[in-house]
Amino acid sequence: MPVRRIASLILLSCLTCLVLGCARSSATKGWLPVASQARQEAFGGWIEVKYGAGEEEKEVKGELIAVEEDSLFTLSEIGLVSIAAGDISRATLRAYDSKHGTLATWTLLGTLSTASHGLILIISAPVWILWGSVTTGAASRAPEVKYRQEAWEELRKFARFPLGMPGGLDRGHMKAKGFW
Question: Is residue 180 a part of any domain in this protein?
């Protein structure tokens, strides 16, 4: 098999691994802060919640506002939504933007650079693909917190109001971050 064809197959494999290995967020581009700014952010993390059962299952996506003992509050495009803890089937919170696309770019460039290695690219290209894909996939999932019944309190620290909904708050006039 010619070296050029091998290089093309390796590149295609690299792109496939990168695309399949990364976590995706439904947050609007620019909505999530980068990791270094996440602690100073006044807004909550981005959460995607599935709740209900069977044909009645619903999904809400938006900013995590507060976590109470029995429910969580999300500010979505339709407004403030309260979801009972017992109704939640799945929830994923993204605390910050990991910028994993930068790692994917370096992996792609590193893999392309193996074309200058001659036949040794048979070894060096898969190494770039493997480690680059693993690293990119891990970085894309680093800011995620998955909902687990026993770790309900873990979500609190990523809410706009980590101590719960403040008393006297006018829930009808809450404002979103400004990207909707």
Answer: no
